[in-house]
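This section describes the prediction task in plain terms. A model, or a person checking by hand, is given the sequence of a single protein chain and must write out its three-dimensional structure as a string of tokens. No templates, partner chains or ligands are provided. The sample shown here is typical of the held-out split.
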Amino acid sequence: MKTTVRLEKAIQKLYIAFHNNTLNPECCKQCAVGNILDNRDSWKHLSDSHGALELNYVGLVHQNLNRKFNGYSPLELLKIEATFLEGCGFQIPIHYKNKKPKNPTDKDVLFNGLSEVIKLLCELDAVDNVMDYTNLFEFGNEKPKYNIELSY
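The expected answer:
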């Protein structure tokens, strides 16, 4: 499957963060966007609250100047973060009164958030979802459409 450079890099960074336990939806440096942007939190100045989908003045300036951050526009970054937070079970934007998961760093919670982010990243780059495994179960003439070598 052909992917883009920014997609490859983003997935690699998220994969490493997930397995190194450095993924935290409540931390601007360790959330999905924080990890994509090399654990920097400067992106949080693009909106007025964590998880918001509206750019503030600073965000609008960067968006209108066509600025990219590791390949992503300010609007794309906000959408990625909102998708991650919602996938993890947060009500956005993050606020102490809004719903949140009991254990935000639970691996199952993070996996759900990452699955949604990867789906979005693939959509942004017009690539088939790399997490979609349904084609493995396609068949024709009562035989699997794809052969998979299994090692025991």
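For orientation: The helical segments are 5-19, 32-36, 57-64, 74-88, 107-124.
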